[in-house]
Amino acid sequence: MRYFLIISLFCCFACGKNETEPFTPIGAEYYPLTIGKFITYQIDSIIYDTTAQGVKIDTFRLQAKEVVKDTFRNLSGHLTYRMERFERKNDSFRWEIKNIFGAQLFDNQSIRFENNMTFLKFPIPVFEKQTWDGNIFIDAGLKIVVAGEILEPFAKKWTYSTESIGKSEMIGTKAFTEILTIKAQTDPKILTEWRYQLEKYAKGIGLVYREVKIVDTQRLDANLSWEKKASKGYFLKMTVLSYE
Fold it and tell me: Domain count of the chain?
């Protein structure tokens, strides 16, 4: 048992001759992959852990940097971007490499490979009110361990959906003119667990915000907020600090 925790279309028109111009489908510009590109984030998380004395709540704060380091061809010959993730406590500390993951723009899909999981972030082209199965490549029985507690994040079906495209928004201290917002969650009527993710991608930059909530509870009270009734799991928030 395993444990843890991406056409060219052509427009031809000319006076007296045909010319071919590349067309970028909506979506690809929100998932740019260029060697040397990086984004840094502020990470804030809350960890829930059931103990003999009750539910223990810990908070953590750090910074992360994700860098597009190199490219390679996978076993199927598809171009894959090698990404490196660094972490540090704050500006006073040096960056330390945390893990290596991958990304692709292939077969009309934006893909992220991380921790032995493959996520379909969004299809390309992407449209408003569109839905898809972003966890289609993930084993529903996969378990993760958080603070010594076992969770099954993918046991129930997630629905990914496009909330908006091209809206301007302030994220952290940064103003962006065109944002793609993607929401993913399980059925919110389920009282024993909550699986939720909100991601925002800035045009020409990439992911600038992520919010994840993976928690379980034994308190079946729909009137209580998950912040108050969660017994195990975590909340995580990533907010862009800088990019290049």
Answer: 1
Q: Is residue 237 part of a domain?
A: yes
The residue range of the domain holding 166 is 3-7+21-243
14 falls within a domain: no
Q: Tokens 């279309």: give the residue.
A: 9
Question: In this model, does residue 21 exceed pLDDT 70?
Answer: no
Task: Quote the CA–CA distance of 22 and 8 in Å, as a whole number.
Answer: 6
Place of tokens 């945390």: 98
In a domain, 120, yes or no: yes
Between 75 and 31, residue with greater pLDDT: 31
CA–CA dist 215, 217 (Å, integer): 7
Cis upstream peptide for 188 (omega within 30°)? no
Q: Give the three-state DSSP class for 227.
A: helix
Sequence-separated (6 or more) residues with CB below 8 Å from residue 228? none
67-104: pLDDT as tens digits: 999 999 988 889 999 999 999 999 999 999 999 999 99
CB-based contacts of 227, cutoff 8 Å, min separation 6:
46, 235
